[in-house]
From TrEMBL:
The lineage of its organism: Bacteria, Pseudomonadati, Pseudomonadota, Gammaproteobacteria, Pseudomonadales. This is RidA family protein. InterPro entries: RutC-like_sf, YjgF/YER057c/UK114, YoaB-like.
Length: 117
């Protein structure tokens, strides 16, 4: 089966699709000026768009890794948005870690793996 890549840059593709599985690269908010709640909302909206383009949606999530710049400060706010976004009964396997992200303005980055519809 062929590998399909979406929005490929020099170093990465935003999404890679293979054998009915969608792999998303780390997704960020477009506007990095807000708090973790705003950034998480923006990031999840970007994920919704990218999953749709890849032939999937948030109900098909298999795995998620969430990176927080400051887990003590931002874990509750991120979870508030994440919990409201997830479709009931579709929680993926998930890991949340604190990480030094590429810019001090980035509060949250999310990578996902999902099944295609």
């Amino acid at each position: 089966m062929a590998i399909q890549r979406l929005h490929t840059e020099t170093r990465y593709s935003e999404a890679v699709i293979h054998n009915g599985t969608v792999y998303l690269s780390g997704q960020l908010a477009d506007d990095l000026s807000g708090d973790v709640v705003q950034q998480t909302r923006d990031t999840l909206a970007a994920i919704d768009r990218l999953l749709a383009e890849a032939g999937s949606d948030k109900r098909q999530l298999l795995s998620a890794t969430l990176y927080l710049q400051d887990i003590d400060r931002d874990y509750a706010g991120m979870n508030e948005v994440w919990d409201a976004w997830l479709a009931p009964g579709t929680a993926p396997a998930r890991t949340t870690v604190q990480a030094q992200l590429y810019s001090p303005d980035v509060r949250v980055e999310i990578t996902l793996v999902a099944a295609q519809l």
